[in-house]
Predict the structure.
Amino acid sequence: MEPRNNPNPASGDDTEIVSRRIERLSLHLNPTPRTLPDGDRQIGMATCARPKLEVDTGKLSGYMRGPHRDVQEKVFDYFESRPELQTPLEISKNDHRELCWRQLVGLVREAGIKPFRYVADDPAKYFAILEAIGSVDMSLGIKMGVQYSLWGGSVINLGTQKHKDTYFDGIDNLDYPGCFAMTELHHGSNVQALQTTATFDPITDEFIINTPNDGAIKWWIGNAAVHGKLASVFARLMLPSHDSKEVSDMGVHAFIVPIRHLDTHETLPGVEIHDCGQKVGLNGVDNGALRFNSVRIPRDNLLNRFGDVSRDGKYTSSLPTVNKRFAATLGELVGGRVGLAYSSVAVLKLAGTIAIRYSLLRQQFGPPRKPEVSILDYQSHQHKLMPMLASTYAFHFATSYLVEKYAEMKRTHDEQLVGDVHALSAGLKAYVTSYTARSLNVCRESCGGHGYAAVNRFGTLRNDHDIFQTFEGDNTVLLQQVAGDLLKRYQEKFQGGALTVTWNYLRESMNSYLSQPNPVTARWEGEDHLRDPKFQLDAFRYRTSRLLQSVAVRLRKHSTTLGGFGAWNRCLNHLLTLAESHIETVILAKFIEAVQNCPDPSARSALKLVCDLYALNRIWNDIGTYRNVDYVAPNKAKAIHKLADYLSFQVRNVARELVDAFDLPDNVTRAPIAMQSEAYSQYTNYVGF
Amino acid sequence: MEPRNNPNPASGDDTEIVSRRIERLSLHLNPTPRTLPDGDRQIGMATCARPKLEVDTGKLSGYMRGPHRDVQEKVFDYFESRPELQTPLEISKNDHRELCWRQLVGLVREAGIKPFRYVADDPAKYFAILEAIGSVDMSLGIKMGVQYSLWGGSVINLGTQKHKDTYFDGIDNLDYPGCFAMTELHHGSNVQALQTTATFDPITDEFIINTPNDGAIKWWIGNAAVHGKLASVFARLMLPSHDSKEVSDMGVHAFIVPIRHLDTHETLPGVEIHDCGQKVGLNGVDNGALRFNSVRIPRDNLLNRFGDVSRDGKYTSSLPTVNKRFAATLGELVGGRVGLAYSSVAVLKLAGTIAIRYSLLRQQFGPPRKPEVSILDYQSHQHKLMPMLASTYAFHFATSYLVEKYAEMKRTHDEQLVGDVHALSAGLKAYVTSYTARSLNVCRESCGGHGYAAVNRFGTLRNDHDIFQTFEGDNTVLLQQVAGDLLKRYQEKFQGGALTVTWNYLRESMNSYLSQPNPVTARWEGEDHLRDPKFQLDAFRYRTSRLLQSVAVRLRKHSTTLGGFGAWNRCLNHLLTLAESHIETVILAKFIEAVQNCPDPSARSALKLVCDLYALNRIWNDIGTYRNVDYVAPNKAKAIHKLADYLSFQVRNVARELVDAFDLPDNVTRAPIAMQSEAYSQYTNYVGF
């Protein structure tokens, strides 16, 4: 049909091939002819395949496994043994709340797993329990987090011995279900602007809790709508002067406020509780709204670790300023972010496992006269799922490191570690939860129609996980904390101050990163070079250093005309990019360490492959930045792109082993389309065939 | 604390500013000092603001409004008058299905709106009804689409007069609720591989419908689980030879198969129906699975427009090949894609309106001693929502154009138009629904905790819309059709063949686009140049042309070693990028036209602003590509970035007017946080205060 030997290079043979391609691959409209040569059997990547990597799943899994797998298996076994405690796909909000409460009671009182004991003393074990029960029902994980990490955590971390003596056992055994009443209708992120007041009454030796206006109604308070009996309420401590003519605002403090009668469960006088109603997800958690009208509590109910009021109305604190007290108060609550970052990786593992197992099973289209191929054999599908799998591994090691450091911090109270864990938990929580939220959509979409069946779990996972991006600190706000912290370190660097471990790279090599890119290495494009951890880490660090230096200059420039707030806002997108770049750098560094420390050579090879994909995919995603300063030459950019695609293909070849190493048995993944055998049959059985 | 006049430029003043910033803006931990100068009042963008654009919302809205607003208002009024037909936030699957059916019956029989009449004769009106009822409940929109566009459409488009005579009225008035039974458990995208058979029995003059294996069970069939009485079943037409010793497979055809008794509603013999169960969303639609065991239907039930079987078992068709018949069959179903693209824009408008109105209301943080600022004043928030608003406008004009062309095609049956509408509907459906799906997440996240309240709608919108990416053609498959079509046009260009309207730019300027970038214009960075539609469109077209030319070369190269299928797969990511780039180019071209055609100068100015943001944001998003071939010089890249941020800020200043112009009254948006007055009160009222 087309002239052969057409001198136009864009025509001739390739137009014929193109024409054949259109005939065969414009998929809906143009059917596959049955008369094509055998050479067509390849599926696109086959000829560049090297010998497939052999991965010993057991060894890889063993290396990944945390030290608390035993308690996780105890959780799985308990819920396996109590099918009536499993959450059905369709359940009303009210039934779900009751079930979730029964699940928690069963876990604590029947299975004898007592998470509260680990909140302070063995956080790694606490997070392991959280991960396991989150896979049973994320609502249960959050319900547990509200009770033990938020309500319980506020009592033991912000209170003193008298509070532990009074409340520990009741919280532990669920006699005292409680709430963490911080957020108000008008104020979430800006905690310092909370408006609820706690005014000391020197005559009765009480605090009077008040909601001064509707904007100050405590909102989204977990456990408040149904089960909570007590709440730690964050309110401005108002202290009258000696003659009661003036009142001093001492800033936000936490107070234990009973909201329902311990025996009758009736709402107490002065407390008004409404149900926040149906949510996008997590409907097993009963969020409520609380309005206080002159509710009196004893002075002892002030959680007084960082600030106290004496019988005669004098304020005392070991910390000198309202800001330092506030920082200390919120600093104690950082565990929630650690838990969310860690749990978010668990969700990503689960969703990735389902999507990848199904994508290996599912076949659609194929070369002429050949069987259809797995959809994971398509380059586009590899592009969707393989960098995600690589990121999951990367996040696994980064959040495991965070948990370790957090536990160490709780043990040692080392001040440098406190700062490091604070910034790292903020950054990882923000980065990982945003990534997981996006990925859940990709997973659903990559499983097509069957991904839309509720039984295959993407809907619930997404709806439940969604709010991870917001609670315990809005991600955009948290990333600004990371950026602020980096700017502080940057300033300290130039003054010779101490740098915490995670930031060391800034001191060690800021200057070299800020010099002009090397025009020779900018052209190196060999695979060995691109897969050299030094090249990868240098590229990440270069980007972060450059973003940091340039935003500091811009902030300085704009501050003179716009003031501090205005300058910060003018540079906000830049600051967020900086924070993400830094977090990616930390993640890569931890991943490279994890590869190097892996004792088994086969597992190490697999991890190295995945780590390279993580690194090169990220560099390619931001190639504009690298190109714009000639950090990489045009041909090197192309080589990075090509290698990232190729590594996706390589990872696809061991994708099954890589998800198996997450060690999620079928009774945890539960999605019929992801069963490790007879998935389609289990799916048709589920529907009733 | 820091030394002033520090000679190090990275230190000194800016470190002090930075230090102050950290104190004030590391938001949770570092409180705002109360002692900052007045100069801090700006919020970052104020000093670069020009006089605010005055937008006449009425005129802009009038220009945007389609010709069928009247029937939409009739829909809104009807449901407003029947509160018992409004879908509550919490409803069981079964109740939702019944309610959805009652909604549809009410619309047709009580409100007297008869959508079936417009499916073929006035599709623009049909889509306007679809848009309006989709905002009542997306399940209702899909339920209507199943009945009228899929089931009804298959009868009138694939059948002949005898079918219309028999079925039109019953479909129209809902006496014949029906299904569109195409997808099977094992085959969705690959429709040609469907396995259900329809074997002609010359003795009884019947077809026998069979499900040969479980993989061929019809799956996800809307209306099948509960309400459907008939189905158009897609099956391979099997024709026995004269002596019945052999059977010829004539390819996939559609057959009308009764599945439930018209009077008793009992499932008919040989038909096995199961409920596909709970879905991620759209639970008002009853999707079922169908297995056929020797179900006999009269020969007349073959929808025989493109192929028929005579009494004596002879096959006749006006179309010469099985492929052309298949193409003609599926080509008639393209209306579904047009409807989804159009409805997806409606969802994007709704979600964007809610997110933007709330972001204007919500205040959090602010300069010291000043009121808190709207969160839409933050650069990061503008970055999330303003390019999305610009895209919504862009998609509005592009899909309106598509609807117009589709209506013209249905009227004229012009062959060139058929090809154009097919590719454009595939591309816009894929591009727009993917964009909307991502944006729904951004909208929820940008509204923080209150975005997570079910009453504020993001959850339902996302869950319902999610499957738009999959049904009526998986987006990844559809984009490949666009790429295939482009390659075909590319080939035709070099042979002087005809190009359809949308592709004209390829012929007109392919050569100029493929020449080396002009090193002079690559450095132009003035605002007038960057906002010149010619620069913008040239940049889009350049990218598409380059991607097209390079992928043709790559396909040619790889075909020799990998064969056609393998080469296509090796280039798949490249092909998808090409398809997206082309669709973006078409969208921009239509947007520029719409700006130029707008008669009112103030509305035109607003549209021009939004169009520039759309164009520059897209160019910046792909800046790596442009930089890599030096299409833009480094400083021009920076200028584009800066201008895109600045335009986001400018659009923010008229964001309220721009969403008002979508003309969505409060009883359509419904989310309390998006009410146009007293939003917080309406929200607290909703919860019970």
